[in-house]
Amino acid sequence: MDIWKERDPSTGEIITCDFIPGTDPVEKPKHYQGKYNLEAISVIDNFIGDLSGKSAWAWGNMIKYVLRFQSKNGLEDLKKARKNLDWLIEELEKKDDC
Q1: Among candidate residues 60, 58, 81, the one with its CA nearest the CA of residue 69
Q2: pTM for this prediction
Q3: Closest listed residue to residue 40, CA positions, set 3, 4, 77, 75
Q4: Tens of pLDDT along 36-86?
């Protein structure tokens, strides 16, 4: 995760935060924004297609984890993405069996 650092003008002390001042860690967390400030939710909305229910949920989570892995939890996020991909495949295989 990006660490923001600034020197406190009154004390000279270095202040660090895990978010950039002026951003909202709830509404616009930095780890869900790409190089050009495109947000993961926009990518998910754009590509979700006809998926619904658990399939849509698993697919969205998979994409989210892949998009953020470099700026948040690294390998852990890739493993979460893989698990969500497995769930998506299971859901799609159930539909194919019907």
Answers
A1: 81
A2: 0.67
A3: 77
A4: 777 888 889 999 999 999 999 999 999 999 998 988 889 999 999 999 999
